[in-house]
Design brief:
The chain has about 230 residues and is mainly α. It has helices at about 15-40, 75-95, 105-115, 125-135, 150-160, 160-180, 190-225, and strands at about 5-10, 10-15, 50-55, 70. Helix 5 (about 150-160) crosses helix 7. The longest helix has about 40 residues, at about 190-225.
């Protein structure tokens, strides 16, 4: 049985709105991991000389602060780059085709941890943590509000989940673009570019939380209609 926000097969519940939000965010950072790996691989079969590296080497750097720091346990740029790209692809594949499974959130967390360990980026860790926490709600039965006034407000909030998700995705992708290319329209100062990047990332983070919360409300209200 399927409805707008939740699907039910036997006793298994899949909160589809939460699933879409989690999968979208995971795919974005999977792409980010591929980007890190690509630039790491460009540095060739050379030692990393430490656990904390610059994913983008001096020869490929496109703006003053475009180094993309990362952590890796693999002491070779080419190998860690290949590993990061492989794990990034695995995150995308898992998010698209398998995240709805009962063990979907657990495998996603393991892939996130692995991506961090093989050079997929440091700044993404905060996002990984939040994405995983919300992924644990994919199979939970969510209760709708029984208060008429609160319920009405919740339903209005639930309508905006897709707007929040699209806005968050655009803001995060813009921040990732700046991190690599340093391209901000009409801005040349690297410190200002950095400020725009961090602001876009922070805005994307807040919008991501709002997308998750409104998505949870939408699934909860649908769940209530199923149960009634």
């Amino acid at each position: 049985m399927k409805q707008a926000g939740i699907s039910k097969t036997g006793s298994k519940i899949v909160n589809r709105t939460i699933l879409v939000v989690v999968a979208t965010m995971a795919i974005i950072f999977g792409v980010g991991g591929i980007g890190h790996g690509f630039f790491e691989a460009l540095q060739g079969f050379t030692p990393t000389n430490g656990l904390v590296i610059h994913a983008i080497g001096e020869a490929d750097k496109m703006w003053e602060y475009g180094n993309e720091p990362a952590f890796t346990v693999i002491p070779n740029f080419l190998i860690t780059g290949i590993a990061s790209m492989a794990v990034g692809i695995a995150i995308i594949v898992w998010s698209v085709g398998f995240l709805h499974r009962r063990n979907g959130p657990t495998v996603l967390l393991l892939l996130f941890v692995l991506l961090f360990l093989v050079g997929g980026g440091i700044g993404q860790v905060v996002f990984f943590s939040i994405i995983w926490v919300f992924s644990t709600f994919i199979h939970k039965r969510l209760k709708p509000s029984k208060n008429e006034k609160t319920g009405g407000l919740r339903k209005k909030t639930a309508r905006f989940w897709l707007i929040f998700l699209v806005a968050s995705s655009i803001a995060i992708l813009f921040a990732l673009e700046i991190a690599v290319f340093g391209l901000v329209p009409f801005v040349k100062n690297p410190d200002t570019i950095t400020l725009v990047m961090l602001s876009s990332l922070a805005g994307g983070f807040i919008l991501m939380i709002l997308a998750f919360l409104s998505g949870m409300i939408r699934d909860a209200e649908t769940n209530g209609r199923l149960a009634s």
